[in-house]
Amino acid sequence: MQYSRLSKILILLIFISSLLFFQSCKYESLGLSLDSEELTSETTIENTVKQIEVSPEQNFFELLGKQKDKNPLKNINIRNAIFYAIDRERIVEELLGSYGSVRNSLFLPDSIFYSPAWSNYSFDLEKAGEYLRLAGYGKDNPLYLTIGASSGSPSRKVAEGIIKENLEKIGIILWVADKDSKDWYVDNVKNGNYDLGIWAIFTPDCESLANYFSSEKIPPLETEDNRNCYNFYWYKNQDFDNYIKNLCEESELNVKKEIAEQVQSILSKDAVILPLYSRIFAVAFNKKVQNIDINTNDGNFLENMEEVSIDMDLEDKKKTETSGKTDDRESEDIEYMTSIVVGFGEEPYTLNPFVSNNIYGGYITSMLIESLWKKGSDGEYKEVLVEEIIKGERVLNIENEIRRTLRVQIKLRNNIYWEDGSEINAGDVIATILAIQADETLNNTHSDYKKIKKIEELNEKEFLVTFNEYDTKWKDLFSVVLPKNIIESNKLTELFEDNLFSSGPYKLREWVRGQHILLESNPYYFGKSPEINAVKFIFNSDINYLIEMLREGNLDILSIPADIKLMEDIEANKDLGLLVKPGKLWEHLAICLKPKEE
User: Fold this and answer.
1) In CATH, what number is assigned to the domain containing residue 352?
2) Mind giving me the DSSP string for 97-128?
3) CA–CA distance from 534 to each of 361, 369, 484, 496, 530 (Å)?
4) What CATH number corresponds to the domain at position 421?
5) H or E element that contains 255
6) For a surface tag, which of 74, 136, 154, 588 has the fewest beta carbons within 10 Å of its beta carbon?
7) What digits encode the pLDDT tens for the residues 535-572?
């Protein structure tokens, strides 16, 4: 028996010695090295047991630390290998089903700037493997990298799992290093302390793209004068910098389109980001409600209420079917046929557009106030309260003239009114700008207003603006106009808690806090009169309760989560419709190019 035990121990030692020998050979073939002490015959059984008990994480980071190349992601072949190896179609299918699609552009498909520059990176493991071999790696000589995201995101965990599985098939071993959202962004993303990462970026305009990818926007370069440095990729390309600058400064749409194509081509070929998918907005509604649309910036489905109507045939049919039943709308003194009920998950606590609020407050105020210009889907500005920008006969490009002179003369439209019938004049615009500049609580959140040096009234409809510096988005400074007689001598942020003086298609009729807000059409609105006379908003934090109200016919419109089963259930309901649109907030795989110490 004693002999048998000794034989077993001897066999075990021979096995361990062989294991260590082959492991050392494996390390050498990887371009890694082991300290000589680890291979000496003095390795005790105790030390061997400890090595066997090393956790997968410790083992991974030991191998990662022994990789000779500390900056493998600088190699374009490795970046190409990663992009070709990822099955983006599968990621979208698992997360969004038929309601989503792979994103291949910095812009949405309905944008004139759309260019599917990333469509070249189709799922191709063979091509991915070829690129990886060009860099000196493969299944027999794996590359070790980390991937991270915020740990509280189930959708990103799914994406990470698929990416990890894909890359292992070509010889890239990933360690998933997720963290709490705040820690992930502060410790890793902003400091460039990651290899691969997944997060969402919002790209509503050219300036946002410049903030993400221009070389002058790398985080350490941020100053009081150089803000919004979101180039967490440490990406540098002078050609890209030149093109993105031209894109932001150009005013001719056709020229901008050509430049946008070049911008996307450069970024795609450099393989620093791989777009995955757009987050989607989903709105469920009673089929009697027609012409609903969704703003792809923020999901607002109320901006085009002037175009929304009710299908009278469906409404008559519904009234017949529900005759004798109680309806929430019948308790209100409003015309039943031209009213709708909207469900929101949270009640706003103020209607002041300058006070931080939940998104639903913004949706409601968009129906109450108009701006001088409204920004279109491609970032172009459309006149609303403005008649024209006055320019000299010899001026060919007004933006170039404003950039040169730092002055602009603006004329308002005639016959534009507040809800009481009084006319909107230049004095209202000037009073609004001065009130914003005077309110110290807005200095940080609305610092761009400091770019206005002086604003002067020329007559009731015209005013002159002088800037301290030129900003391509200067028209955004006039997104809100409030009546002079209300805001003068008052602190702006202390006004409009329970009401907002309207210039839009609707005005506030009633707000019963904790229950509902009721808007009615504004008879003095200068634009197209809405067909819907009244809109009632009810609030409940339980989305399941609101969905049930929609199914029962007590709600007409509701923004719903992007849940595949829920959206399928809505579509299967004969009384309900579903509108789904991709937004300008989109998920992507990021590659960090920040140099690591050798």
Assistant:
1) 3.40.190.10
2) GGG--B--SSS-TTSTT---GGGG----HHHH
3) 17, 16, 27, 21, 9
4) 3.90.76.10
5) helix 253-270
6) 154
7) 999 999 999 999 999 999 999 999 999 999 999 999 99
